[in-house]
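To: structure subgroup
Subject: Chain for Friday's discussion

All,

I'm putting the inputs and outputs inline so they're searchable in the archive.
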Amino acid sequence: PRARVSVKVPGVTDIGTIAVGIAKAGADVIEVSGFEGGTGAATASSIEHAGLPLERALCETHQALVLSGVRQRVRLRADGGIKTGMDVIKVLALGADEVSIGTALMIAEQCIFCHGCANGLCPAGITTQSGLVARRLMTEKKGRPKDDVLPDLEEARYEDAKEGVRRYLTALANDVRTRLGALGLTRPAALTGRPLADELSATD
């Protein structure tokens, strides 16, 4: 099968025109990223307030694709500050087919969002090349001994991280399911692009 082509576009002025061009060029997925996006690997100055809010960029992209008759050619993915079920519901209503979640998943495995990824100084032990520092992941933070005396339980460490991610995604899915049910919908696709401002306000 043909590989899917995904293009990530930050929220900028005239993003709708850009997205139409991307869709006509044959992309399968357009990922719209708002100014709350970004990872700890980037410096704080590089991700704070860079671009437009996700809601505005996503809405403009969806409308431009619809007006140009190419909306069915691509899937829209929303990225940037999505953490709760309400966040997911709102971006679906604004036109997203899918969502990308980054920061919340990192925090679920004990990231403390200190922007230390790029310099290898992650105090949680997630993004590091040091085996000693990596032992910090999923250990008690208060009163923790030095890295070289922590047990090197790599398998257990990642099992704990995986369980943290699983719990978060399960809670998020249940939240989304509950909110969809309150709107009388049974699946997320039924919400995509629907003008439900009043209903969303009622369930918030």
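Points worth raising on Friday:
Residues 196-201 have pLDDT under 50 and may be disordered.
The longest strand covers residues 6-10.

D.
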